[in-house]
UniProtKB/TrEMBL annotation:
<feature type="transmembrane region" description="Helical">
    <location>
        <begin position="153"/>
        <end position="170"/>
    </location>
</feature>
<feature type="transmembrane region" description="Helical">
    <location>
        <begin position="282"/>
        <end position="303"/>
    </location>
</feature>
<feature type="transmembrane region" description="Helical">
    <location>
        <begin position="125"/>
        <end position="146"/>
    </location>
</feature>
<keyword id="KW-0677">Repeat</keyword>
<keyword id="KW-0812">Transmembrane</keyword>
<protein>
    <recommendedName>
        <fullName>Tetratricopeptide repeat protein</fullName>
    </recommendedName>
</protein>
<feature type="transmembrane region" description="Helical">
    <location>
        <begin position="202"/>
        <end position="226"/>
    </location>
</feature>
<keyword id="KW-0802">TPR repeat</keyword>
<feature type="transmembrane region" description="Helical">
    <location>
        <begin position="347"/>
        <end position="366"/>
    </location>
</feature>
<feature type="transmembrane region" description="Helical">
    <location>
        <begin position="246"/>
        <end position="270"/>
    </location>
</feature>
<dbReference type="InterPro" id="IPR019734">
    <property type="entry name" value="TPR_rpt"/>
</dbReference>
<feature type="transmembrane region" description="Helical">
    <location>
        <begin position="47"/>
        <end position="70"/>
    </location>
</feature>
<feature type="transmembrane region" description="Helical">
    <location>
        <begin position="323"/>
        <end position="340"/>
    </location>
</feature>
<dbReference type="InterPro" id="IPR011990">
    <property type="entry name" value="TPR-like_helical_dom_sf"/>
</dbReference>
<keyword id="KW-1133">Transmembrane helix</keyword>
<dbReference type="InterPro" id="IPR052346">
    <property type="entry name" value="O-mannosyl-transferase_TMTC"/>
</dbReference>
<feature type="transmembrane region" description="Helical">
    <location>
        <begin position="378"/>
        <end position="399"/>
    </location>
</feature>
Length: 676
């Protein structure tokens, strides 16, 4: 790479005389762009950074209208633990595992989500705004750290602009539950910045915070050592500084690893028998072989943003396959070139070796439920963006020497600006995939047609979108479509719980209770966790099993409820199901208890409220029903209008006995009017 951005001559770094600021006169001259920031009459660096951040924010504005998708339902919408701040202390004990607190092995993320929920509730727009703010924070900290390392301002700003609009980051920013990557990057880069400033206690604390969000930040010490040790823009610091900084950053990593081991008794939080981890099915060797083309593909997707997808299918591979051999040779050659550049071209070495180091945690050496995902490249793309920005600025300097003088300023930034515009345009189109679950999984199926997960989820979405009052022929057609998705999902992965759940819910919709019960049992047999919905399904279906005595049905329902509630006490779905079952079993005290608990764990979800109101009306207590409705007015208005109308129609006579204007004031759209 030419000398300009990297601060090096083609002859090596040893022949450069450095001044008191740590840069050689030749490097300083080469690093000073025509667009001189901070000089009289020029744009100030602070305004330039704010301008770039504003541009990045503007590109992300459409995200504010997106819904919750992917794991947002599990980690945020239906995560009752976030509504129980008094129980926060148990997060740091084995009870968190026993009670299946989502993401318990990422305690910092759970605390962040709990605080976020307490502040902004379940507003999808506000949560997306928070993700955008975190992404902007990562870009701002990246600029600051590069400047502390001695990087020229145009390089630091160009790197942040490229990183901020890189197309492969669409998934990480557009999906609320994936802000773990944003938080890990933000705190990890802040830790590196603190270590470079020799604030070691702060660096250790921030490193701890980063790894508590996602352990992939555990590679930050390696990146920091490369950046400080290679020192592309200033003299290499003393070895004692490198050792102290690396130790401070490593302390945070070690603390989270120790926490994980104490919680799980192992370093693998997913468990050795977890069938969602593909290496547990086929062995580590075939997975690592398949990872070589995956990581070469990541590099292609970063440089040329084609092939980005919300879903990838896990695959095994053999070391002798041509694609594996070619990918391995290419990655080995790239790593070798990075090592060879360590002395003469340290910026090149930092870009290459830094990317390898940061990609290590998601290289499938360690168990992961997904072998590949675009979001895995959020942090590893930092050094790639640095190297690419340096290359594009170098190209701009070359171009500026071959154009008229009045065009030189434009020519210097033209290559970088062109790439940023292309990446940002693809970023907008890619992010649109994540606007809602129906669109997301439709695209996922097209991009990964053999994905059992995409097929099973599509089947359930078909069932969920069938109106209750749809004609019989329309229902039969929808059920047939859902069954096709379920069958294809099972064919692609018979040992995965989602196809079995798809079949179970299809059978329940068809009122084939024995088949539904059998499929729920099959799902539970292969599912390692997230089983609250399975227990709820088993309990509810048990009460309708034909050719079974009432005593047996009741015992089965109670047993499945007890097992589920013991393992998933923070599940609002399970408590709502328990309320419905005890309602059917004529146990209003228990029904009320579970309805109230469900509403406390998910106050925005109206199902438990509607059921509790119906219970009170069945008990002849319309006054209590109305008081509850007024107290939970927001949840009532969030309910489906058809469900509200049906409830009122069923209890028209009871409500006519108690018809104060306060009822109608709780229902401005007139759903409580007593017309059939």
């Amino acid at each position: 790479m030419p000398s300009g951005t990297g601060g090096m001559t083609p002859h090596g770094r040893d022949d450069l005389s450095t001044g008191t600021d740590g840069m050689s006169s030749r490097a300083r001259e080469a690093a000073s762009p025509d667009l001189s920031f901070g000089t009289p009459g020029s744009l100030s660096p602070r305004v330039a950074v704010l301008g770039v951040l504003a541009l990045i924010a503007l590109v992300h504005v459409p995200l504010l209208g997106f819904q919750f998708v992917y794991d947002d339902g599990w980690t945020l919408v239906a995560n009752g633990f976030l509504r129980a701040p008094a129980d926060l202390a148990l997060l740091f004990s084995p009870e968190a595992i026993a009670r299946h607190v989502p993401d318990a092995f990422r305690p910092g993320l759970v605390v962040f989500d709990l605080l976020g929920y307490q502040l902004i509730g379940l507003s999808s727009g506000l949560h997306h705004a928070l993700s955008i703010a975190l992404h902007l924070g990562v870009c701002a900290v990246l600029v600051r750290w590069l400047r502390v390392l001695g990087a020229p301002f145009d390089l630091a700003l160009g790197t942040a602009a490229l990183f901020g609009l890189l197309a492969i980051h669409a998934e990480a920013v557009a999906v609320v539950s994936y802000r773990e990557d944003l938080l890990a990057a933000l705190l990890g880069l802040a830790a590196a910045l603190a270590a470079s400033r020799r604030r070691l206690a702060l660096a250790a604390f921030l490193s701890l915070g980063a790894c508590s969000m996602k352990l992939s930040a555990g590679a930050i010490p390696a990146l920091w050592l490369l950046a400080e040790g290679l020192s592309p823009w200033r003299p290499r610091p003393p070895v004692t500084h490198l050792l102290r900084g690396a130790l401070a950053l490593a302390l945070g990593v070690a603390a989270v690893i120790a926490y994980t081991f104490a919680l799980y008794g192992a370093l693998d939080p997913y468990g050795a028998g977890n069938l969602r981890v593909f290496s547990h099915r086929v062995g580590l060797g075939p997975v690592l072989a398949a990872s070589l083309p995956i990581h070469l593909g990541y590099l292609q997707q970063i440089l040329v943003p084609l092939g980005l997808s919300p879903e990838y299918t896990d695959r095994a591979a053999g070391l002798r396959e041509p694609a594996v051999l070619l990918a391995g040779a290419a990655l080995l050659a790239l790593a070798g070139y990075g090592l060879a550049c360590a002395r003469r071209r340290p910026l090149v070495a930092l870009a290459i070796l830094g990317a390898f180091a940061l990609a290590l945690p998601t290289s499938n050496l360690f168990p992961m439920p997904n072998m590949r995902a675009d979001r895995f490249m959020y942090l590893p793309s930092v050094p790639v963006c640095l190297g690419l920005a340096a290359l594009l600025l170098t190209a701009g300097r070359w171009l500026s020497r071959h154009v008229p003088e009045d065009m030189r300023l434009f020519a210097r930034v033209a290559p970088l600006a062109a790439v940023v515009v292309v990446q940002g345009s693809v970023r907008v189109a890619t992010a649109a995939v994540y606007r809602d679950n129906s669109h997301l999984w439709g695209v996922a199926h097209v991009r990964a047609p053999d994905s059992a997960r995409a097929l099973a989820v599509l089947g359930e979405l078909v069932l969920r979108n069938v109106p209750a009052d749809a004609p019989r022929e329309d229902k039969a057609l929808a059920f047939a479509r859902a069954e096709a998705h379920c069958r294809n999902a099972e064919r692609h992965d018979p040992r995965y719980e989602l196809p079995q759940l798809c079949f179970a819910r299809l059978a329940a919709a068809r009122e084939d209770w024995p088949e539904a019960y059998r499929r729920y049992q099959a799902a539970l047999a292969v599912s390692p966790d997230r089983n609250a919905g399975i227990f709820a399904g088993l309990a509810e279906v048990s009460l309708d099993l034909p050719a079974t005595s009432e005593t047996t049905r009741t015992d089965l329902a109670r047993r499945h409820l007890a097992e589920g509630l013991a393992s998933y006490p923070y599940s609002p779905e399970l408590h709502a199901t328990a309320g419905r079952i005890f309602h059917r079993l004529a146990d209003p005290e228990q029904a009320t208890l579970h309805y109230q608990r469900s509403l406390a764990l998910a106050p925005e979800r109206p199902e438990a409220l509607l059921a509790n109101i119906e219970l009170l009306l069945d008990l002849g207590r319309p006054t209590a029903a109305t008081e509850l409705l007024l107290h939970e007015k927001t949840a009532w208005l969030a309910a489906d209008p058809d469900d509200r109308t049906a409830l009122v129609a069923r209890h028209r006579d009871a409500l006519r006995l108690f018809e104060p204007s306060s009822i109608l004031s709780a229902d401005p759209v007139g759903v409580l009017a007593h017309e059939p």
